[in-house]
Amino acid sequence: MLSNAFFLGKGGVGKTTMSAAFGLELSRSGMRVLVASLDPAHNLGDVYGAKLEDAPRQVEPRLFALEVDLGSWVERYLKESMEELKTTYSYAATMNLDSFFDIMKYSPGTEEYAVLWAIEHIHCDLSSGYDVVVYDTPPTALSLRFLAMPTISNLWIAELSKLRERILSKRQSITRINPASPVASSCVDKKDDKVYGRLSSIRKRLAGLSALFSAESYVAVVLNPDVLSVSEALRIKDELDRIDIPLSGLCLNKRGVSAAEWSLDPRLAASPVFDFNFLSGGLHNREDLRSLNTEKLVADFMATGKKGTS
Ligand SMILES: Nc1ncnc2c1ncn2[C@@H]1O[C@H](COP(=O)(O)OP(=O)(O)OP(=O)(O)O)[C@@H](O)[C@H]1O
Ligand SMILES: [Mg+2]
């Protein structure tokens, strides 16, 4: 069975609601479930009526939830990067790394990497305690960037690794010609080179995340019966196609919320569609979440797992 589920979609369509209802249904059917919110503007705790933090808290006998503290993951990621810089490059010890920290904190990509390492932590350190981990994601832009990050970063890392191999081979040639050269005392072999080793280990981590997204996860897009959220769902599908992540299903939430004209693009209709009615009385507690009736979605999640392993 697949052991992860991601709910993506435009702001406000019901990603948190669907993640919470899906996780609740799975746990009440006997699974041990962790629902993790990756959205910096958390409201999973409000939906479950529980106070949540960066580590799992029990909501029901088999249901646990957490809200990732993205700020602390950004700090952790930057501190690790600085340590690596210091230990891998001796000249970095003489640089003013405090200014590096400030620049990196607001650099493009930092937040995406922080989300990735938070997911890696949940996957590697926590998920063995659960049958399924459900991820409630931030609005589309950030989610698509962190999902694409392993693929994009791996292209970079492959190029950097080639460059490093060329440097090492040049060093080898110089050492052969002139064993007295200062280069002869530096590392010439891939297997002893710290920089090459770092690149390989990052590549391995990213490959693990790539596999998690594309082969071990049920990726659902939530949309509403309106033109804008359908367009956004299409954009998400195109981007997922580009990075080789299969779209598992569509959650058409808030059915009946308005009488405005809308239609599901035929390109989306190829994926299984699950309908959820708009509850005009709102959602106030866990029993309201259950009245969304996620059984068919849960059944498809289970069947997808079986298909994937057969
Ligand atoms: N089927 C439904 N019937 C009635 N109200 C709903 C339904 N689904 C979601 N809502 C309500 O819509 C609002 C937005 O839902 P939710 O917070 O789950 O969306 P989201 O996609 O996670 O939003 P964000 O992008 O801000 O994280 C909430 O007030 C929620 O209670
Ligand atoms: Mg949300």
Report on this structure.
- The chain is of the alpha/beta class and 310 residues long.
- It has a single domain (4-74, 104-155, 212-309), classed as 3-Layer(aba) Sandwich (Rossmann fold).
- Helix content is 53%, strand content 14%.
- It has eleven helices and eight strands.
- The protein has helices at 15-28, 44-48, 70-88, 97-105, 110-126, 140-177, 194-215, 227-242, 266-269, 286-290, 295-309, and strands at residues 4-9, 33-37, 57-60, 63-67, 132-136, 217-223, 249-255, 273-277.
- Strands 3-4-2-5-1-6-7-8 form an eight-stranded mixed sheet.
- Helix 8 (227-242) links the parallel strand 6 and strand 7.
- Helix 5 crosses helix 6 (140-177).
- The radius of gyration is 23 Å and the shape is elongated.
- The model has no long low-confidence stretch (mean pLDDT 90).
- Adenosine-5'-triphosphate binds at residues 9, 11-17, 39, 43, 139, 253-254, 276, 278-279, 282-283, 292.
Number of strands: 8
CATH superfamily: P-loop containing nucleotide triphosphate hydrolases
Report the CATH topology name: Rossmann fold
Measured on Cα atoms, how large is the radius of gyration? 23 Å
Q: Output the helix-strand order.
A: EHEHEEHHHEHHEHEHEHH
Low-confidence runs: none
Largest sheet: 8 strands, mixed
Determine the N-to-C terminus distance.
Answer: 10 Å
Distinct ligands:
adenosine-5'-triphosphate, magnesium ion
Spatial strand sequence of the major β-sheet: 3-4-2-5-1-6-7-8
What is the CATH top level name? Alpha Beta
Protein structure class: alpha/beta
> What average pLDDT do the residues reach?
90
Percentage of β-strand residues: 5-15%
- Helix content, binned percent: 40-55%
Domain count, please report it: 1
**Contiguous helical run count:** 11
Choose one word for the global shape: elongated
